[in-house]
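Hey, resending since the last one bounced:
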Amino acid sequence: MAKPEYIAALDQGTTGTRCILFDHSGKPVIWSYEEHRQIYPRPGWVEHDPLEIWEKTQKVIRQTLTQGNIPNGRIAAVGITNQRETTVVWDRHTGQPLTNAIVWQDTRTKEICDTLALEGGQDRFRSKVGLPLAPYFAGPKLAWLLQNVPAVRQAADRGDALFGTVDSWIIWWLTGGPRGGAHITDVTNASRTLLMDLHTLDWDEEICQILGIPASMLPTIRPSSATRPYGFTREDGPFGESVPVTGDLGDQQAALVGQTCFSPGEAKNTYGTGCFLLLNTGTEIIPSAQGLLTTLGYQFGDAPPVYALEGSIAVTGALVQWLRDNLGFFTRAPQIEDLARQVEDAGGMVIVPAFSGLFAPYWRSDARGVMVGLTRYITKAHICRAALEATAYQTRDVIEAMEKDAGVPLSTLKVDGGMVANELLMQFQADILGAPVVRPTVTETTALGAAYAAGLAVGFWAGPEALRQNWSIDRTFEPTMAETQREHLYRIWQKAVTRTLDWVED
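The structure tokens again:
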């Protein structure tokens, strides 16, 4: 029988699902991608159809195997990475979702979070879970569903309801669904629920009771790279054979692994729908005093867990999509760079895209987006340039907070994700940081991290050092902006942020 040549990675993101096969060198060989619908029932509400996500997942797997003419026996293992915090509840007997998934960007749980904060404040649970009380996280979303959707409450009371982030949903179906599918999650996704104790890596009974969440709904928490597989794909499933499922990482932690940030002090920033900057802090849990999140970085097999500090930005690539889909400025997202290059600067205007409030380091769910500094001089090109600059400014906000928490200045920033192909953005990012920005050869590092986690578990790669050998630089962007201009622009940005606050009234 032929020796396995590939690791399959499923990257289930906020706007679509990708399947990529990676070879031993960590290079993507063949892939397929499908978008899914974004559902907006009310202002501030964002939902997905879980069945549509599962259907798209099956489709991209089959397309990838067909396009690559991949016979059975060539895939060593499967790894999954996913949009984090997005909350799915389904019936364990039928596999039917009991309602739409509530997406991580959704703000409907603000009232629940505010009520919880009446006792102990926004940091009521932070010493255990590393997170503030915020609508971002999955636990309050699950509490909202139990309180407001009768079908969820009734199924939970019967013991028929299963909860999970999207990794749990996909893995459950891949490994059999109602026919014995594995109901699991990994430490990184569990650390985004507000329900997992960072110290014990288990669900916290007290917090679950306070939120009214039955333990019977919760998945088993497993390492991110599982030498004992979570389960095996079914022969009648999209892979058409039994393959061990051994990797599971939330998307931003997957990018940390894909960028081989295995040493304390190494950081990466992923530019996607939102922006997520993670700093490896090793086996030490570092509480944040600057509005960052303390989270799990990864856990490989039986090794001690590795922790991270994270700065989460809700809207970056989503702002580009908004200009495309809502305002019709262009038809394809990459076209924003050509428009932005038509002008020298943003013409004195600033966009703060607080569509879902402000995430790190502010954590203000009352904020909403603004365009400020508008004059008759402003054109569509200026707005496009300001949209790109907003991503870079928000990244600096997070890095400044991270430097204060970690006590170490940033020397270089490793970047990945769809937006890093935009060279205007990458250069402005280096300029506004005053530090080099390093873009790797393989920019799909989220999927690569899932592949690495799965491959390490089955011996496809010998260990983390072997993965470092795969990493290579495509381009380094060096800062060229004068310090006085850099600080002037950043000061204007900070002023613009203040204009977003206190917009939503109780």
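The chain has a mean pLDDT of 93.

Sorry for the duplicate.
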